[in-house]
Amino acid sequence: FCVDPKHEIMGKESETTATVRTRKFLTNRLLNRKQMVVDVLHPDRATVPKSEIKEKLAKMYKTTGDVVFCFGFRTAFGGGKSTGFALIYDTLDYAKKIEPKYRLVRQGLLEVKKTARKQRKERKNRMKKARGTAKAKLAAATKKE
Amino acid sequence: MVEDQKQEVGSSATIASDLPKGVALLADLATNLNNATATFDVLAEKIKNGELNSAKGLSLLELKNQSFLTYMANLVYLTLRKLKDRLVEARVVLERIRPLEDKLKYQIDKHVKTAADGVVSADDTLRLTGNLDNIVSSSDDDEEKEVTSKVKKTDDEEQKIYKIPKITQAHYDGEAKKNEAKEKARRRTLNSSMLRDALLEHTEDPEVVYNNDVLKQRAIKKRRELEVFEEENMIRKVVSRRDKAAMRQMTTLGTMGSEILGFNTMDALQHDYDPSAPAAKRQKTGKSSKSKGKGKFKGKKGFKKQKHRF
């Protein structure tokens, strides 16, 4: 069994194009967005990353990439095809108002500050020792250390 | 009565307001009459003397004169009648009677009809009133005694037997269920692959191979349903581990095997099959009878004896 030298597979073959098709397109006037089901056909390729799909959709619908939010991509058994959802907002303002926080974080539009888990637990344990007004005082003192 | 009083009050009020006007009018009337009579006398004299002869005059004016005279005469007559014969009063009374008559119309008609026919009609609803004599008074002593004694007897009996308190009606479908179970079992055996294969030997139809694996179809249907839901609502539903495993399992070919390998007994096809009763034990055949010899354990009896042993 010999390998044909012309068809050498080098590492990641991300140059084969993926086809993006949309289904069940709906203009949601109430939420100022367009929502659709996205089918991505990518034979000979791993699942296409969301950023790439985002860019492709932005080009298709002639908008910028920052108002396009895609999520929920599942690859069919055997590979080659994945299905997900996409929302394209009219403006970024609406997007910031309506989209759930986690999706905004994914897009990079929102920063969630979170204290470390350990710190939070330690604080809670310290609060357990106090009672009543002393507790409130302690809470204020230890807040956001 | 109240109506009449009201009417009187009303009329007295109007009378009070109209009284001065009426008096004034009367005075006017008197003066006018005097003037009229004066001129009239003069005119009458002239006519008597024959000064006013209208034979050669305009006929239209003559007509006018005559009609005026008749009109005046009739008007005077009417006024006289009104003042003398209580015309107004009669009219008012008639107007009052009219609504009362309307209200009693039905009864009046009924009575008139009865009078006209001479016999009371068969379906006369006025006769359908209650018979007051038949109403039994509650303070009837004899009857009460009888009733109470009866009640006491049954009470004693009832206290000995325990009866389940009836809260709501419970639906009992025992018979139907039994038949259903029987039917179901029967259908199951008939449609099993074992019997189907057995029957294939005896039919002359060409063998048709369907690709409807029931379990697989169910899985496919479920999956499709889920897909539709997810696309409709733009949400990915969380499928539990068990369901996921089931979905995965259905796509494998191994599921077919269970159907082939499943053994069904023919008990369900028997007439006296009872699905709720414990399944009959399988009767041993072949080996045992052989070992015991030839003639002794033939037929049904032989089998029964084997059963005792095992």
Descriptive overview:
The complex is a heterodimer of chains A (145) and B (310). Chain A is α+β, with helices and mostly antiparallel strands. Helix content of chain A is 33%, strand content 25%. Chain A contains 5 helices and 4 strands. In chain A, strands 1-2-4-3 form a 4-stranded antiparallel β-sheet. In chain A, strand 3 (68-75) and strand 4 (81-89) form a beta hairpin. In chain A, helix 4 (117-129) runs antiparallel to helix 5 (133-142). The longest helix of chain A is centred in the last third of the chain and has 13 residues, at 117-129. The radius of gyration of chain A is 23 Å and the shape is elongated. Chain B has 310 residues and is mainly α. Chain B is built from 12 helices and no strands. Chain B has helices at residues 2-49, 59-84, 87-103, 105-117, 141-160, 174-190, 193-200, 214-233, 241-250, 254-261, 287-292, 299-309. Chain B is elongated. Chains A and B meet through loops of A and loops of B.
Index terms:
heterodimer, A: alpha+beta, four-stranded antiparallel sheet, 5 helices, 4 strands, B: 310 residues, 12 helices, disordered C terminus
Describe the SSE topology:
The complex is a heterodimer of chains A (145) and B (310).
Chain A: E1 19-28, E2 33-41, H1 50-60, E3 68-75, E4 81-89, H2 92-98, H3 101-107, H4 117-129, H5 133-142
Helix pairs in contact in A: 4-5
Chain B: H1 2-49, H2 59-84, H3 87-103, H4 105-117, H5 141-160, H6 174-190, H7 193-200, H8 214-233, H9 241-250, H10 254-261, H11 287-292, H12 299-309
